[in-house]
Recover the amino acids of this structure.
């Protein structure tokens, strides 16, 4: 595939701890601007309530949003007993 045939994609990864913050405002506004210009945009961030207004707006305007759980279970680690 020729370089000019590929569509530019952007991915934002947030390490948010706590409520929506200043850096989330910056990347989310950039994401919405890029989507409005026709770019493909994805974002990965820790899970917030699904009714959070910024999450609703990002989804409604076409950002592919991946919400990560707040914590991960490691289960039982062999030999760690």
């Amino acid at each position: 595939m020729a370089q000019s045939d590929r569509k530019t994609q952007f991915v934002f990864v947030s390490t948010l701890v706590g409520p929506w913050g200043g850096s989330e405002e910056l990347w989310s506004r950039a994401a919405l601007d890029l989507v409005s210009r026709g770019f493909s945009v994805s974002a990965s961030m820790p899970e917030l309530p699904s009714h959070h207004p910024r999450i609703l707006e990002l989804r409604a305007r076409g950002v592919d949003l991946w919400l990560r759980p707040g914590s991960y279970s490691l289960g039982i680690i062999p030999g760690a007993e």
